[in-house]
């Protein structure tokens, strides 16, 4: 299949290009240096020239606090940028897969969100991703909306690296106990997306590593598996961690739709261990 991947310079986009290429798809990766998704004319022209059968729209402004400080820019890139890509895809008869976020939910429930539960974003990043979802759902009937959460990847700044860097440097660790979601490994997500598109079963999907935890539990697992069992973490609440954005407190996702098709991801603990193993950071026999 001829596939266009936006955001190819990003961690997920780059992994998608590699994963799909290894499965013998004809993959074209593009990023902001090629065209600005917020520019409809440029987006339409580029998509028309490439004429893909499928666009995987992974490009986004993912700085959640940055989005809170500049909500109009967040909407321009994440919302109307997705609209531009959806329109361009429809014009050439291409299907579209939009990578969205668990932050389209309010986080006020106590049960993991299913794919067709009501959305209600509470911050500008979540709202911008929700607008992108609505555009894709409305403008292109051949769509996949893939929501994910708490991505960690090799080579970039992420929660795992931040926790390890702080522990290695002996910095005090304060981590929230009341923000819950699904840590998700980009390698696993890319593989699941590759599996999903081969089904050609369009719809909304929650693709996350199985299980949910708090930020505190996530950090504790990282430390315990890397030989930092004695490193103390001060448990705090979201109210004690001031930031520009307000995250949904309980935004765990349930992969129900994907499971029905056989598209699953391993437990988050196993995914973190695989990440640490590849990074050369795991300590044999470590853990509780």
Q: Could you describe the 3D structure shown?
A:
A six-stranded parallel β-sheet has the order 2-1-3-4-5-10, sandwiched between helices. It has helices at residues 11-22, 40-50, 64-69, 71-91, 124-139, 159-168, 186-197, 215-225, 257-260, 268-279; strands at 2-6, 26-30, 54-57, 95-101, 143-148, 151-152, 173-176, 180-181, 184-185, 203-206, 213-214, 233-236. The chain has one domain (2-157, 183-211, 252-269): NAD(P)-binding Rossmann-like Domain (Rossmann fold), CATH 3.40.50. With 288 residues, the protein is α/β, with parallel strands linked by helices. The longest helix has 21 residues, at 71-91. The protein has ten helices and twelve strands. The protein is globular and about 55 Å long. Helix 2 packs parallel to helix 4 and helix 6 crosses helix 8. Helices cover 40% and strands 16% of the residues.
What are the main properties of this structure?
single chain, about 290 residues, alpha/beta, Rossmann fold, six-stranded parallel sheet, two-stranded parallel sheet, 10 helices, 12 strands, globular
Strand content: 15-25%
Question: What top-tier CATH class fits best?
Answer: Alpha Beta
State the CATH architecture.
Answer: 3-Layer(aba) Sandwich
Task: Please list the strands of the largest sheet in the order they lie side by side.
Answer: 2-1-3-4-5-10
Q: What's the average pLDDT?
A: 95
Count the DSSP helices. 10
Terminal Cα span: 45 Å
CATH superfamily: NAD(P)-binding Rossmann-like Domain
For the secondary structure, the number of strands is: 12
**Secondary-structure element order, N to C:** EHEHEHHEHEEHEEEHEEHEHH
Q: If you consult CATH, what is the topology? A: Rossmann fold
Q: Strand pairing plus helix content: what structural class?
A: alpha/beta
Helix proportion range: 25-40%
Can you tell me the number of structural domains?
1
Low-confidence stretches: none
